[in-house]
Design a protein that fits this description.
single chain, about 100 residues, mainly alpha, 3 helices, about 5% strand, elongated
Length: about 100
């Protein structure tokens, strides 16, 4: 089925449920409790939690490598042999 057609049907069903009074509206306390229960259920699966942790560590490492690479690039723009304010070529590098 076309995804747009499926969304249209789901929208109609949701509207009908609200009109008939059958749609449930979570209040903040019910939502908090549902989230807590879901978190407890998911955290029981140690392999799943280990995969989540590993992905977070990989992402953090990638972000740090990217930041270090960007820092190196910026440092390279400022440093190196080139004319200084006097027009002289400087061989000193800043780190």
């Amino acid at each position: 089925m076309d995804p747009e057609r499926q969304r249209e049907i789901a929208r109609k069903g949701g509207r009908a449920a609200h009109r008939s009074g059958n749609a449930h509206q979570f209040d903040s306390e019910e939502a908090r409790e549902a989230g807590r229960k879901g978190g407890e259920a998911v955290s029981q699966d140690r392999r799943h939690m280990a995969r989540i942790g590993a992905r977070g560590g990989e992402a953090r490492g990638a972000n740090r490598r990217q930041q270090a690479s960007a820092d190196d690039t910026r440092d390279g723009e400022d440093a190196g042999a080139g004319p200084d304010d006097t027009g002289e070529v400087s061989s000193m590098r800043r780190h």
